[in-house]
Amino acid sequence: MRVLYIHSREFLYKPREKVKIDIAEEAEPTEKIFHNTLVTFITVEQGDFNRRDEILGAFINDIMDIMQKVKAESVVIYPYAHLSNKLEKPNNAIRLLRMIHRKLEQKGVNSHRAPFGWYKEFKIHCLGHPLAELSRTF
Amino acid sequence: MRVLYIHSREFLYKPREKVKIDIAEEAEPTEKIFHNTLVTFITVEQGDFNRRDEILGAFINDIMDIMQKVKAESVVIYPYAHLSNKLEKPNNAIRLLRMIHRKLEQKGVNSHRAPFGWYKEFKIHCLGHPLAELSRTF
Questions:
Q1: Are residues A129 and B16, on separate chains, in Cβ contact within 8 Å?
Q2: What is the CATH number of the domain that holds B7?
Q3: DSSP single-letter state for residue B85
């Protein structure tokens, strides 16, 4: 799993059009907006679902650590197909993204999961401090 | 070389702080802004400089093709260390990024190269149409 974290002053997105795959989730074409948020652009890679427990544990620990360091108030889980060439099957990717969301909620983190399988318009304002952009491979 | 293209309604950046490497380019901490632009986030990977002719040819062709399809008015070359774990030596990466810039200018493309080796604040507004976000490996 590849992750790009961006600590953002503001993040806004709006689903525009379904990608031509049957697996696109249902979503309202409404704008969602977040302030002082940690946006996590996530590419679930081939084989990640089989390693889900290991990945989930490491990722959640990492998010909690970064949240504390940068003082972000929420997390946005944003599916992103562009960080790797080896994508997991869509249904397994969605299952893993849902598990991440559920785990964050259990930890009391204010979190939101953007829909999978959509072309989305977005605006992001990256803060640009030394921890504002980080990348990881899990 | 890994590239993430984002066709943007607006893109703005401002150098904030030098990353602790000797190779950071000189840059003014002033805001630069672009409209209807194709932002190319670029990670130059180990070994890319040795393959520079091949990479340059393929990348410039690809940019020209996308520019025409999305009707962007300019290109921003934005060094980005987060698309790969295997980074080229900084001086070689800068040389390749400069070659890309020079080649685009020769082709008559309105292009700008953001400085290497800085933490930068940025705002991007991704248009969200089907060709607004594309990724490539060269």
A1: yes
A2: 3.50.80.10
A3: S
